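# step 3/5: fold
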Amino acid sequence: MPEHEKIVLAYSGGLDTTVIIPWLKEQNPDCEVIAVCVDVGQGNETDGLEDRAKATGASKCLILDAREEFITGFLYGLIKSGAVYEDKYLLGTSAARPLIAKLLVDVAIAEGATAICHGCTGKGNDQIRFELTIKALAPQLRVIAPWRTWDLQSREEELEYLKARGIPLPMAKEQSYSRDRNLWHLSHEGLELEDPANEPNFDHLLQLSVSPEKAPDIATYVEIGFEKGIPLTLNGEALGPVELFDRLNKLGGENGIGIVDLVENRVVGMKSRGVYETPAGTILYRAHRDLEYLCLDRQTTTFKETIRTKYAELVYAGEWYTPLLEALTAFVDKTQETVTGSVRLKLYKGNVISAGATSPYSLYSENLASFTTGEMYDHHDAGGFITLVGLPLKMRALMLARQGQA
């Protein structure tokens, strides 16, 4: 490590980054550590961070409010694309990391730093997400990843490291889940979750939500208004992005919405188990999907299914700033030009139930769909259509008959 190096640290105040500041100073007493916390909706987790960072050796601590940028620049893309990783994970951590890394790069350039440090483990996905973004935006910056170089082997050893140096622990040992919280979700890993055979202890684990069993016995109705795929109103009230997400997280959490227990395939090749709370995200995905059912034609809907799968894979792997994701985003945005309207949902004990949708761009025609014969559809036309669609099947059957295989 060069002398007098200025290092920008992705700082959360959690266990890993609490250890990293004194560790960096021990490696090079002359280095300057600038702690940067990007607020993407961690709530009160940012309280007292500046004092804690300085107390452990940082020269300064910057707390950047990026909540609205997180929603408008990243989460809207997830909603519009419908991206879900492995049919369960709504990409809460995955979508936040490129934004955090982008802002770390901005600070590093403004401060004249030569390196960015993160607390991601060598087993996780986040190291990839951070470093791919840094390579894409500022390849001249060096990356420091302590988990890949230091001698500490576990969270227990990290706790002992802090204890030996008289540094207050950021959490009790029995509460040392690895958690990541933002406006979109709260993830939990570690402790009993490391064994997939164990049922999660929701009473001990959940922070945004209640378990479905403890949700109210009366359903809650919500109505969400969209314009070009973007949610703008809740129950008829126009809200800013942050307030809309906060309210939906509260409503969803109270009704046990969006709790997922998933064993997923990490980019680095191993499987991991986590529990995710995504109340607002789960509601918004469902509402947006219901509106697309009205507004998108069959061919676009079918092709978008393949797009959303690839979109999810790219976001999960940290490939936000890539030509392919840029191209897919352009396709998705084109599909959203008519995804405008209102969707009503019923929230009940962990379930999100469709309760009606309307749109000025609806492709649904009651005249066509009704069992009653209308002027727009002649039942006799179906016979000729089926004959043409079935022609390849008929020709194949005749060929097999000639070959004696029928």
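# step 4/5: annotate
The mean pLDDT is 94.
# step 5/5: archive (pending)
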